[in-house]
Amino acid sequence: VVQRVLLILAFAVFVVHPRAESEYDLEPQRGSRQLRRQHPRYAQSATPQKLTKTLQGILFDSDYDNGSLLDIQETGTDQFAADLYTDSGELGTARYWLRFRMTGVAGRSIRIAISHGRNPRPVIRMGDGPWRRMTADEAPDLNTLALSFGADTDIAEVAFFFPMGYAETLRAVGDIVRRTDSATTFVIGKSSQGRDLWMVRVTDSTVSDVGKHRVWIHARAHAGESTASYAMLGFLLQITDDSYLGHWLRHYCIFTVVPILNCDGTYLGHTRWDSRGIDPEREWDTPDRTPEVASLHSLVNQFMAGPNPIEVSLNLHSTQGNYTDTFFFKHLYPSVSHEFEAIQQRYIEAFRNSTPLFDNRSPQTSQLDDDQFIESYYWNHWRENVMAMTYEGHFLRRITDNEYITDEDYMELGRGLAIAVIEYFDLPILPPSERWGWVLY
Ligand SMILES: [Zn+2]
């Protein structure tokens, strides 16, 4: 009880009320020691990926939240060549993020030579319109953008995938949280560059916390992996829903959502690393090196010592590999026990039953690293008491109809991650209510 009161007091201090302003990432090396860090090699303190440059009357601009463009040159009339920023971190280089705005494009047709890696069709938005996948004409190959603009479209923005910046993420989270009284937002720390690190707690506050399951998710350890942010938002929408499923989940669970871990890298328009060239995904053996990981580490320890320890932990990422489906890294014996393998599979099956957008067609496995990852930390300290896995979204085609996957699909997958919790814990049926009605599940 004392611990719990202290925990509540500690959080009360930090409660904030959200305001309106407010390569291949295959990661197959998860079990290997090849990517062991050597020593900190800090990234440049300047931000070369933040560019403003005018060519032939077009202002090319990446100097804003999540923007990233190293340089652009003119190669002919209405023809340009763009260079993308390459992260250089202590684990090597990475480059699969781009995002920039063009102003002054009304009535023009331009070609941009741009080598952007493995996403065959980046996304575009005209003016303030919605993001959409480029067409085959607009992105004929991996090295070309061929864009035409109407007379009334003077501003357009392009990005690697459906993008989501730091402030954009917090604004979207704030919009969801404000609509419900079941969510509370906390600032749990600061990033290296001083940005707020958020946590959202969701539960039914009219029901006692005694015996509730704690479910943890955090997203965006890697800056360019924006599918993770959409999945996180879908998850948050599901657990705050004023629906039978929403009430069912909140009745039996306390959800802890960290919307964005790599705050600085995301703002800067990095692909993977933070502002200092460090991979915050692989810092759990030296958590104090990065303030974001230190904050999570301390929070995990508090929860695990408290009355509602974490029982499920999901770590949301994106992959660029040629996978046909979203996947989890399922850790195998002998790095974990057979029992742990079984609880991971139990969650995977529950997720499979919760959404048609996942069929586990690209299952991935690994030997759990000794100590670098959050999953390693849980395993070393709490074994089978915490079902902890990394989730990987992809940038390519959805399994239902082979069309390119969208931001909406990722939100739907995020809803599925929450709904899967019902089957995973085998939550007892909640008595029906006139207000929520019954939902067939
Ligand atoms: Zn990742």
Features:
441 residues; alpha+beta; 9-stranded mixed β-sheet; 6-stranded antiparallel β-sheet; binds zinc ion
Describe this structure as you would to a colleague.
It is a single chain. This protein is α+β, with helices and mostly antiparallel strands. The chain has helices at residues 2-14, 166-178, 227-240, 244-252, 263-268, 291-305, 338-354, 374-382, 407-425, and strands at residues 15-16, 52-55, 58-61, 71-76, 79-83, 87-89, 92-94, 99-103, 109-114, 123-126, 132-133, 144-148, 155-159, 183-190, 196-202, 213-219, 253-258, 310-318, 327-331, 364-366, 387-393. The protein contains 9 helices and 21 strands. Strand 4 (71-76) and strand 5 form a beta hairpin. The two termini are 37 Å apart.
